[in-house]
Amino acid sequence: MESPDSRLSWDDYFMGITRLVAQRATCLRRKVGAILVRDKRIISTGYNGAPSRISHCLEVGCLRAAQGIPSGERHELCRGLHAEQNAIIQAALSGVSVEGASLYCTNLPCSICTKMLINARIVGIAYGEGYADALAASMLAEAGIPSRQIG
Fold it and tell me: Is 76 marked active-site?
């Protein structure tokens, strides 16, 4: 019989699923996954890529790379939505409120996603890797939303 200590922690479980979701991403630069969790239940998932019915960067190339735009800058010059944005949108399309949910994401959200998450009333963020956006971390702290890096 398996011992209780051999079970994955909730953080490891949700982060593992988040990394699996990221494998669906169509961004050529970085594959990002996000899930929204409330009461230890996944309420929505998202990965980065172009909107529905729009050609993906895998098919047409990366506009940002072609223009030499560094990571973390000029987010508006991208065909894709971020994973966090897609998770919020998918919940909305299903009629599910994300208020009170926690975000698990492969990367710390950018400042644009952070603003959306604050207004969506997300209560915490767990992420795998950092992101070069000091404004995002500052806004999360000011809004009182705890963020923590987990393996």
Answer: no
